[in-house]
Amino acid sequence: MGTVAAIGARTSVGGLALAGVEVLVAEDPDAVRRAWRDLPGTVALVILTASAAETLGAGATGLEPGRTGPLTVVMPR
């Protein structure tokens, strides 16, 4: 079974650590892209803040045919 990670600003994702989520604090677009690129292969679900999702674009959050990688969900604003 895979793990769950969250990417975004500390104030938005920090509390998820209490539920066992691997929190990847990313306060700016470059940090978001690095966190996404460096996700461990064990991650099956990624929770993104709305800002992080905008930074990554549809390539990370869209359902593309043949797409591989973790399932992503976007937190509401």
- The fraction of residues assigned to DSSP E strands is 25-35%
Q: Strand order across the biggest sheet?
A: 2-1-3-4
Helix content: 25-40%
Q: In terms of per-residue confidence, which ranges show pLDDT below 50 for 5 or more consecutive residues?
A: none
Defining traits:
77 residues, alpha/beta, four-stranded parallel beta sheet, 4 helices, globular
Summarize the structure.
It is built from 4 helices and 4 strands, in the order βαβαβααβ. It has 77 residues and is of the alpha/beta class.
Structure overview:
The chain has 4 helices and 4 strands; from the N terminus they run E-H-E-H-E-H-H-E. By secondary structure, it is an alpha/beta fold. It has a 4-stranded parallel β-sheet. The termini are far apart.
